[in-house]
Amino acid sequence: MPRLMGMPIHDVTMNEAVDRVIDGLARGRGGTVITPNIDILRQYRSSPDLREVFEGTDLLVADGMPLVVSLRLQRTPVPEQITGTDLLWAVSTAAAAHGHTVLLAGGLPGDADRAAEALRRRNPELQVQTYPCYVQPEAEAQQVAEMSRAVVESRADIVFIGLPFRTQVTTMALLREEMPATWFFGVGSSFELVNGDRARPPRWVQRMCMEWAWRLTSQPQLWRRYLVDGMPIAARLVMSALRTRWQRQPIPVPASPSPVSSG
């Protein structure tokens, strides 16, 4: 399994990721899915608790293009970028085809409901429920506990959770114990993208690893996340990838001298 600065990433395509979920459900086995980007890598590096959660996660795919490029740079490439939003669409389509139930939990007020409507428009047969939950710092514990009870009561096969990252992964880990046959996806703010409140950047912007700049044009309040917190870890990531690449270079073996024939 490839790793970036110690963080594991699974070497899978989108189709393979979806197949892993559907095959697991057919066997009565659930799991957890995390889609790391640069900011998640930063949190992973700074938290032993998060590192432990990652080691117990069933599927980790590279959401951020800088991670994909760095994996290529260090010669441990993955087939493609897999965003949480793309997974939400693809897994929901597969769920509709196989009769599995889906729950969208979390998000800003109204986001989960409108995202569910968008998913139904593409897959009218999709069985999808929602539980909106926009957590407030002063009431987070109670709100997450109430949401978790609703998730357990839903008995959904697949749950997409849109909460702040640390809250999201710890909640998923706890729910995994309560619902071992359910797949849990941490999708952050993906509901906004599914329901059209926020646009994805053009593909060329993503390929150039400039999605952060695109996002700052519409969400300047994120300047600290990208410019203060993000830039240092991005620089360290590139240096780490180059160092790993150098360490993986084969050491040339000098050719043995040809024996001198006598006579």
TrEMBL record:
Keywords: Glycosyltransferase, Transferase. InterPro entries: WecG_TagA_CpsF. GO terms for molecular function: hexosyltransferase activity. Signal peptide: none annotated. The keyword Ubl conjugation does not apply. The keyword Glycosyltransferase applies. It holds the Pfam family Glyco_tran_WecG. This is N-acetylglucosaminyldiphosphoundecaprenol N-acetyl-beta-D-mannosaminyltransferase. It comes from Mycolicibacterium litorale.
